[in-house]
Amino acid sequence: MDPHEYETHEIRSSDKQPITVSSQLMDTQQKYHVTLQSGRDFILNSGYDVYVAAWEAYEEAALMDDYLVNVEPIE
Q: Are 35 and 69 a contacting pair, CB within 8 Å?
């Protein structure tokens, strides 16, 4: 897969307006700093697809009986 290839997603906001989101496709893993409502945080290893990373962070927060606050990629 070309590391400079982009994937485009169209989603709809609550007022039904289309929003286009582009995410870069990569073969490698990306690290994300995840912050939870309780103040705890952790590092998540996921792919470069931002939707997948956000869902994985949400699931991990639920397993910890906590709420997801923020997910930031680590450069």
A: yes
Q: What is the pTM of this model?
A: 0.61
**72 token code pair:** 């930031």
The helix (H) or strand (E) run that includes residue 39 is none
- Reading the block at residue 45, the tokens are 């290893």
DSSP H or E stretch at residue 28: none
Digits of tens for pLDDT over the chain (75 positions)?
A: 444 555 555 555 556 666 555 455 545 688 999 999 999 999 999 887 888 899 999 999 999 999 999 999 987
Burial 1-33 (b: 16+ CB within 10 A, else e): eeeeeeeeeeeeeeeeeeeeeebeeeeeebebe
Question: How far is the C-alpha of 70 from the C-alpha of 35, rounded, in Å?
Answer: 5
